[in-house]
Amino acid sequence: MRAKKALFLLFFTALFTFSNTHSSVNDEAILSEDFPSKLSTYGFFDNLAQQQPKLGVLPYNLITVLFSDYADKDRFIYVPSAKKAQYVEDSVFDFPVGTALVKTFSYSQRINDSDVVKELIETRLLLRKIDRWETLTYVWNEEQTEAYLKVGGKTVNTRFTDSTGKNRTVRYRVPNKNQCKECHASGDSIVPIGPKPRNLDKDFDYHDQTLNQLVKWSQMSIIEGYPQNVKPVADFTDISKNIEARARAYLAINCGHCHSPKGSASSTGLYLNYGEQRPKQLGILKPPVAAGRGSGGLNYSVVPGDPDASILLFRMISDDPAIMMPESGRSIIHKEAVSLIYDWIERMEDETR
Amino acid sequence: MMLVKSFLLTCFIFFGHIGISCADQIFVSSDSDDMDRFQEAFILAKPGDEVVLPSGFYEIADGLSIDVDDVIVSGAGLNKTILSFKKQLTGAQGLIVTSDNVTLRDFAIEDAKGDAIKAKGSDGIYFINIRTEWTGGPRSTNGAYGLYPVESRNVLIDGCVAIGASDAGIYVGQSENIVVRNSRAEYNVAGIEIENSNSADVYNNLTTHNTGGILIFDLPYLPKQGGHTIRVFDNQSVQNDTPNFAPEGNIVGEIPRGSGMIVMASENVEIFNNEIGDNATVNLAVVAGEDSDDPNYQKFPKRIQIHDNQFGPGGFDPDERGDLGPILVEMVSTNIPDIMWDGVLPFWQYLFGQPTDEKLVIAGNGDATFINLDAFWYVVLPYFHQPTTDINDFSGNISPLPAVKLVFPD
User: Which of B105, B154, B96, B158 lies closest to B125 in space, CA to CA?
Assistant: First the structure.
């Protein structure tokens, strides 16, 4: 009797393990209009807490990323099998219905010489529904065992260890649903921002091999293909690269989604998206419009050669909500970027004078 | 959870071919420490719902937003439901609306760090009995705008109160189909400002104790240009006597203290039946915009009609701070007539005259005084500078502009 029971148990354990290893992502959950309340429902991960993705859920990285109060980000993409994303010039890929872009935000804190504790904060999803992209975010519980849907936003007070080894506190804001749209809006629709070919064109360590991400995505049939002449954006931290390219790459991903003709900041006339070439639209000797205190008593967005007289920089070095840019997603000053933009403006030659 | 408990379902059932529609009233609880409940209510609301804000004073740390169409957000009154952002930590506004057909009524937003209420890209945005105020009086650290619809259509501002904005109390920018009425703007730099917008009716408002009362402006470097067809009537713009407190680097920082109304670079503006008085720099000014290298910008005001206004004392103590006041005093005197035009025209019009249908028309303003500053020649060739003061040079027939009809989106 006992042996029979044990056998039974073994059988079930085996069955469970088998199904768990080989179970697939829950396509139904991705498409459902009844948004699942738990992140685990989607089945993106073999091990949720360790963020180990299932086969078919591919981790990726971007060359220059959006600054989010020094939070670390782990990105994953899932495209349903038998479907492929199409290349669109100067844009993100056109992903098929059922695609999920998954991004987990975390902070790491060094507690002693050998131990680093990683705290998962939230996992944001961009889901390609039949008629649109949907933005959802799941906030991790204290036990770090599950993340739960949160639409109204949340404050997480926590600590992290910065690149100099210093422990810092942060009042991290999980965005509410409307704030997702603030950055992801293009006209009346929601669009992904990051996975553009030019921002993906770099090597990634897939453990078994290191490979260019676009090559890997083609091999995995995530994308249909891409032109060979993709010009990768500069890594804004890479000092071997041209400063103009680094600055424009940073501004494009951190400002250009709102500051573009179709973005949330369209009314300002200041456009920092990647393709913008007109000096006035890029802020050069452009007077502020409705900046209020955000102008800091300065007359122009960018004064070539004079960073201290440039509103653009003034708003990056502020953490006052009435002044700072971006308006959401940042409460800490991004020191490295400030120094880049400072140098960029200082070395800029004034072609208009 | 707090929110769900206080849901009161009110279903309106229509029979026959209309079908069944169901509208919820979502009551935000008055006693809870969770300030995210306001935001949560705005997100959970569905088209057709009404979010009811409780009476009381609530300190909110994170800027609020509304992005659902066809909702009403109503409080218990503009002195009863007060959302204070004195301790705001995030968000560039107290409240931002980005959806269509949204009614905000009967509440107040106080001490927002940036703008109080912004509506961006809304078709159908109605502010009714709303108060926006910075409670510490006029300070350059106050937020820029009180009520701030931009890139919007079908804008109604009715029965509102705007106090203490360091730019404009009521500011409608890059919008069309606009009604601003029955409202009061005081102790702002600009009381009411209509900027780069067309089809606006501004009437039955009181603007007082601002730096400038009512501004109709067109500015360069904006996606929407060429503001036109604006009626300003039945308003009182009196005793705008607050020294300019705009933070430096803003265009309104140039407004002299004691400006009743200013029209800059706009086209087709009709100003009538207003009471304009006790404005120490100038009661009513019509001026060209600044020079710019924006090819889309036309800086000359055209077809401005000023009629049947009642002027009180004005121009008796021009603001000598800033850039504009001193120039005025130098050109005119310390006694500036009621209606002032800078006389700036495109160069060729000095030689061949101004097209008749673009001319300033001034009629039936009682014993109002007038000056054409002839500022162009003052700057270019002072020898030819000849200010004129004969108001009858600008008499003509008034062609009334059509009333604005707000279209309520489906």
Answer: B154
Q: Do B91 and A151 touch (CB under 8 A)?
A: no
Distance CA B202, CA B321 (A): 29
Q: Which residues numbered 163-222 in B keep a CB inside 8 Å of some CB on A?
A: 166-167, 171, 173-174, 219, 221-222
- Min Cα distance A74 → chain B (Å) is 25
Q: Which of residues 317-376 of B touch A (CB under 8 A)?
A: none
- The answer to whether the CB atoms of A267 and B150 lie below 8 A apart is yes
Distance from A284 to chain B by nearest Cα, in Å?
12
Which residue type sits at A201? D
* B371 CA: distance to closest CA in chain A (Å): 30
pLDDT tens, per residue, chain A with 353 residues: 455 555 555 444 444 444 444 468 999 999 999 999 999 999 999 999 999 999 999 999 999 999 999 999 999 999 998 899 999 888 899 999 999 999 999 999 998 888 999 999 999 999 999 999 999 999 999 999 999 999 888 999 999 999 889 999 999 999 998 888 888 888 778 999 999 999 999 999 998 999 999 999 999 999 998 888 889 999 999 999 999 999 999 999 999 989 998 888 888 899 999 889 999 999 999 988 778 888 888 989 999 999 999 999 999 999 988 899 998 889 999 999 999 999 999 999 865 44
Chains A and B form CB pairs within 8 A to the count of: 128
Q: Rounded distance, CA A76 to CA A43, Å?
A: 13
> How far is Cα B350 from Cα B209, in angstroms, rounded to an integer?
38
Pull the structure tokens for residue B217: 């402006």
Give B364 to chain A, closest Cα distance, Å: 36
Indicate the residue of A153, A296, A322 with minimum beta-carbon distance to B249: A296
Position B270 in a domain = yes
Whole-angstrom Cα Rg for chain B: 23
* Inter-chain touch A267–B40, beta carbons under 8 Å: no
With respect to residue A176, please indicate whether it lies within any of the assigned structural domains. Answer: yes
Which residues in chain A are contacts of B171 at CB distance < 8 A? 290
**CATH number of the domain enclosing B158:** 2.160.20
Q: Which two tokens stand for residue B37?
A: 């409940």
Residue contact B223–A152, C-beta within 8 A = no
Domain range spanning residue A211? 21-219
A179 → closest Cβ in B65, B141, B248 = B65
Considering the domain boundaries, does residue B73 fall inside one? no
Contact B40 A151 (CB under 8 A): yes
* Burial of B156: CB neighbours in 10 Å, binned 0-12, 13-18, 19+: buried
Q: Give the total number of structural domains in chain B.
A: 1
Domain residues for B227? 114-394
Query: The tokens of B327 are what?
Result: 């120039």
| Burial of residue A15, with CB atoms counted within 10 A of its CB: 0-12 exposed, 13-18 middle, 19 or more buried | exposed
> B221, B244, B292: best mutation site toward chain A, by most A Cβ within 10 Å?
B221
Q: Which of B229, B329, B217, B227 is nearest to B262 (CA)?
A: B217
With CA atoms as reference, the chain A residue closest to B122 would be A188
Task: Please tell me the total count of domains within chain A.
Answer: 2
Residues A206 and A320 in one domain: no
The pTM of the full predicted model, rounded to 2 decimals, is 0.86
Other beta carbons within 10 Å of B399: 11
Q: Which of A186, A219, A252 is the last residue of a domain?
A: A219
From the list B67, B68, B35, B63, the residue with the least C-alpha distance to B53 is B35
Q: Smallest Cα–Cα separation from A286: which of A272, B71, B41, A117?
A: A272
Say if the Cβ atoms of B120 and A264 lie within 8 Å.
yes
Contact A178 B98 (CB under 8 A): yes
Residue B102: inside a domain: no
Q: Say what the ipTM of the complex is.
A: 0.77
Helix (H) or strand (E) holding B166: none
One domain for residues A251 and A207: no
**CA–CA separation, A194 and A16 (whole Å):** 36
